[in-house]
Automatic annotation (TrEMBL):
InterPro entries: NHR-like_dom_sf, Nucl_hrmn_rcpt_lig-bd. GO terms for biological process: cellular response to corticotropin-releasing hormone stimulus. Pfam families: Hormone_recep. GO terms for cellular component: nucleus; transcription regulator complex. It comes from Dreissena polymorpha. The keyword Transcription applies. Residues 1-133 form the NR LBD domain. GO terms for molecular function: DNA-binding transcription factor activity, RNA polymerase II-specific; nuclear glucocorticoid receptor binding; RNA polymerase II cis-regulatory region sequence-specific DNA binding. Signal peptide: none annotated. This is NR LBD domain-containing protein.
Amino acid sequence: MAAKKSAACRFDPEHETLFLHNGVNLNKSQIHEEGVAVLVEPIFDFAMGLSKLKLDKAEEPENVEKLQDAILGAFKRYVSENRPHQPVHWAKILMKVTDLRSISTRHAERVLCIRLDNSGEVPPLLLEIFNEGH
């Protein structure tokens, strides 16, 4: 899996500013002005809560990813040893994770569509936030 920085790594709690991967800098006060609070405020709340944990270098994404890889490797060995006659069981488990991510993405897209359908014109800030540089 490619490492991605989390929102908290790009969040300045002092200025309540989120630095998005597409170059957009979003201050919390802007989301209320632009009418996109329902969609973006949970991201700010998550980032603020995570920033309060004051994670050190060992707790940052790169190190966590290394630990995840080790844990996944151990889990894969566990599944292989406990289900020797089901060689595709591990792949089925991974497919469920993929399914869950897909459901989450579809849900987020649907929520966005519902919000936009009900409010008419798409706020410019919302377009900028969800534009991934395409």
